[in-house]
Amino acid sequence: MNCIIVEDQPPAQRILKKYIEDLGSLELKGTFSDPILAMSFLNTNDIDLVFLDIHLPRLTGLEFLKSLNKKPYIILTTAYSEYALESYELDVVDYLLKPFSFLRFVKAVGKVPVAGFSLPKEYVSNRPEQQRKEHFVKLGYDHIRIPFQDIIYLRADGDYCDIILPEKKYLSSEPMRKWLDLLDEQQFVRIHKSFIVNISQVEKVSGNMITLLDGEKLPIGRAFKEAFAERFLK
Predict the structure, then answer these.
(1) Beta strands of the chain (E only): which ranges?
(2) 56 touches 81 (CB < 8 A)
(3) Cβ neighbours of residue 225 under 8 Å, at least 6 residues apart?
(4) Is there a cis peptide before residue 99, judged by omega within 30 degrees of 0?
(5) Which has the higher per-residue pLDDT, 152 or 140?
(6) Model pTM greater than 0.90?
């Protein structure tokens, strides 16, 4: 998977270059301090992934993202947390808050849904929290136990997340990205910027739509369609 860096601070550029080199499965095609030059490069080159800072000269990273004609996958890298919600509405893959570790970097890259790409085996995480079978959701003064196998799907609701069960719905104060960390990626798949679905609850896939066992239909987002098809339809 090839990538570029759009970052105007040399120390941050050096860290990203080192992380990319250490990971070994990314090919760095260019590093840009000027977002206008990066935009011109993207218009004439096929790039899978951009590591994009938010505070840039001449225009912000979010303005840069909105202006792109050809949109690769984006991982934002920034020292400011207040842009997280807006960035996820723009379909970014992940939001790396500086300073971030190499392991956090690897985790972000692992979310990029490019067909045929996978992390080197030594970086595939087997952390205990990814093997958990349940999670407690805080509701008022109570904590409700949610077995993962009971979840039909999750729906983003601003900074919150709706957890849809067969006969109940809970509103979790934990955002979508937190649930992506908790859930088993072999059982749950993100099909849209607003939806994570339990693959065992899917009855039918028709074009850009999934039909669940209970008849409810959910959309498959453009950014997630290729990776979903590669994993489950081939």
Answers:
(1) 2-6, 27-32, 49-53, 73-78, 94-97, 134-139, 142-147, 153-157, 160-164, 169-172, 188-192, 195-198, 202-206, 209-212, 217-219
(2) no
(3) 208
(4) yes
(5) 152
(6) no
